[in-house]
Amino acid sequence: MAGVKLQGLSKHYGDFQAAEDVTLDIVDGEFLVLLGPSGCGKTTTLRMIAGFIEPTTGTVTIGGADVTRLPPWKRSTGLVFQNYALFPHMTVAQNVAFGLEMHKVPKAEIGSKVATALDLVQLGHLADRYPRQMSGGQQQRVALARALAFQPDVLLLDEPLSNLDAKLRHEVRHQIRSLQQRLGITTVMVTHDQEEALTMADRMVVMKDGRIQQLGTQRELYDDPTSEFVASFVGRSSFIKGRFSGGRFVSHGGLAVETERRLTGEAVVALRPERIHLGADAASDAGNTYRGRVESISYLGSSIDVEVKLNEIDSVIAQVVNKGRDSGASVGDEVSVTFPRDVPVFAASPA
Amino acid sequence: MSANAASRPKILTAAFLIGPATFIAALGVIGPMLYLLRYSFNQYDPMELMIETFTLSNYVEFFTSPYYLSAYLTTLRVGLISTVICLVAGFPLAYVLARSGSRFKNLMIIGIVVPLFVGNAVRAAGWMSFLGSRGLLSVTLMKLGFTDGPTDFMYTEGTVIVGIVAVNLPYMVLSLQSVLEGINRNVEEAAFSLGAPPLTMARRVLLPLALPGIAAGTILTFILAMNAYATPVLLGGPSFNMMAPLVYGQFQLNNWPGAAAVAFVLMATTLLLTILVAIITRQKFREG
């Protein structure tokens, strides 16, 4: 087991910066998730850790050893792919044994180590099956057992759940997470699914255009996003755009908003839907209160999204708990909208 | 009842689809073959040419005559060697093609296909102008001072093998490439990440998965090499003997029974070795 350090890692293809100055200190035993839209550099970063992409600049350190110039087969990384990538011509047991054979584990020990690894994912009874005889979820668990069997320093997961249907995704997700915690293996996972990231990670990294946007725990990223991009990519937000003048934020639609954090110039206020309260019950001294008109209502089951237009420009989406038939407003109603002062505020992105 | 009713038109459709080809094959291939097989049991007579009888003498003669046997062994040797060379040289090429993300990939494939547009005889003529005693290679070697006089590279078994490899390589590359392309790149990467260096990965993962393509390419190029005609005649010269030219030679002598026997030995050998390759690869594929 070992920690992973990325120092100023960049990968350029001509003018294109696939990853730019990625610096991360992944602690021993930590589950780190790289989150971002496609093309954000998360997969490039993972592949640089695995050794499939040689960085243009920067270093990769695993367990204190610089592995930047080492090929993948000389690094101790267990890799799990989105499409499972099991060897189709080998049985489950042979798949899992492959890594052990490559690491020169004595023949006599391979059998028991394969059995142990398969037991970890509760697939010991399918050892003699071929991958094509198994479901996607089972195949991915075999891939996990194969990646873990030779006890690598680091476990790397490349969108491991994306090919699974919703129910299986939940199952395998919990299995990966509990296994990772039980074994205490340093793990880096790439995903574009924020729910996966939120439920699995110790810490997560949001990336965009090859750069790290923000690093932190789920709570830090959700409650204190430092950019409009993070606020919209992790969870949902309504944005009110405006500018600070004289220490006060005034929206383009003319709303004066009190914020704890004060900036200068063009700025954006991000509002989480569940932190916006509707109706008369909202205590006005708790924050900012406005009048608005209900534009649309989306029924989501346990909650209801209410879009409220505050003026010609500004509108917000509030999430209201579904309390039964009489809960919430209907389209066209006048309502009061309240949100707190400690909302995230950041300078408007130049775009 | 309903299943029968539904399947009857399907059978009709299938019969309609495979009917014409089957008819042509039966009429144009199997019929003449059976005729030729019958001929091979007839007797050759220099005066009467062919005497209707039933004798194995043509086959006995084939396997006892040093002339025929040497042609037979040469054909087998050239067929095997050229096929192995095609496989060894073609695999890396096919791999690069299959894994290439280059925008020139289609150009590369066209480059491999284009030689197939040129007939074997024309290509052999090209080799003659290159390898002959006044050819490009000989003259270049002289100019560079490696040789004192003209060297003739023609009319050797090596020359014939080179010629056949040049003809057959595209078939091998295309057979391999299509199969290699179907092997997910991630499978290779998984092997790397599990600690397999490239050669081990190729041996344990790539080759077993590429076996169907290897079998197809090997069988195809082997059949072509065994039956090569223009290349051995033009590059091997008058004293070089392979089976296909031999068949033609016997026909020219009006020895139809003898030609038929040679033809059937050639066909049977090719078929047997092909089946052998198919069985071996299938077993390997099952074992993994």
Q: Regions of chain B with pLDDT < 50 over 5+ consecutive residues?
A: none
Rg over CA atoms of chain B: 24 Å
What's the CATH class of chain B, please?
A: Mainly Alpha
What would the CATH topology of chain B be?
Answer: MetI-like fold
Biggest beta sheet attributes of chain B = 2 strands, antiparallel
Family (chain B): Belongs to the binding-protein-dependent transport system permease family. CysTW subfamily.
Pfam family, one (chain B): BPD_transp_1
GO biological process, one term (chain B): transmembrane transport
Domain ABC transmembrane type-1 (chain B): 72-277
Features:
heterodimer, A: 351 residues, alpha+beta, Rossmann fold, OB fold (Dihydrolipoamide Acetyltransferase, E2P), six-stranded mixed beta sheet, five-stranded antiparallel beta sheet, 8 helices, 20 strands, 24% helix, B: 288 residues, mainly alpha, MetI-like fold, two-stranded antiparallel ribbon, 12 helices, 2 strands
Itemize the secondary structure elements and their pairings.
The complex is a heterodimer of chains A (351) and B (288).
Chain A: E1 4-13, E2 16-26, E3 31-35, H1 42-50, E4 57-62, E5 65-66, E6 77-80, H2 92-102, H3 107-120, H4 136-149, E7 154-158, H5 166-183, E8 186-191, H6 194-200, E9 203-208, E10 211-216, H7 218-223, H8 228-233, E11 238-245, E12 248-251, E13 256-257, E14 265-271, E15 277-278, E16 287-299, E17 303-309, E18 315-321, E19 334-340, E20 345-347
Parallel strand pairs in A: 3-8, 3-9, 6-7, 7-8
Antiparallel strand pairs in A: 1-2, 1-4, 4-5, 9-10, 11-12, 11-14, 12-13, 14-20, 15-19, 16-17, 16-19, 17-18
Helix pairs in contact in A: 2-3, 2-4, 3-4, 4-5
Chain B: H1 2-39, E1 43-45, E2 49-51, H2 57-64, H3 66-99, H4 105-113, H5 120-131, H6 136-143, H7 157-181, H8 185-193, H9 198-226, H10 230-236, H11 243-252, H12 256-287
Antiparallel strand pairs in B: 1-2
Helix pairs in contact in B: 2-3, 3-7, 3-9, 5-10, 7-9, 7-10, 8-9, 9-12, 11-12
